[in-house]
Specification:
Structural class: mainly alpha
Largest sheet: none
Strand content: under 5%
Order of helices and strands: H
Number of helices: 1
Radius of gyration: 22 Å
Helix content: over 70%
Number of strands: 0
Distance between the termini: 75 Å
Length: about 50
């Protein structure tokens, strides 16, 4: 009984840690994608209006 209970406690801890790490990685990737889009838009505006 104790081995079974400890297995579920460890599994719950692993799930929580995985969720926290995944949330941090996804937010970082999302910020990177948004920055790339903003840089692309600014580059398009620059080449369209200032070099044309």
């Amino acid at each position: 009984m104790l081995e079974n209970c400890s297995f579920y406690i460890i599994a719950l801890i692993v799930i929580v840690v995985t969720f926290v790490l995944l949330k941090k990685v996804v937010s970082c990737l999302l910020k990177s994608v948004i920055m790339i889009v903003v840089i692309a838009i600014l580059a398009f505006i620059y080449y369209t209006y200032y070099l044309a």
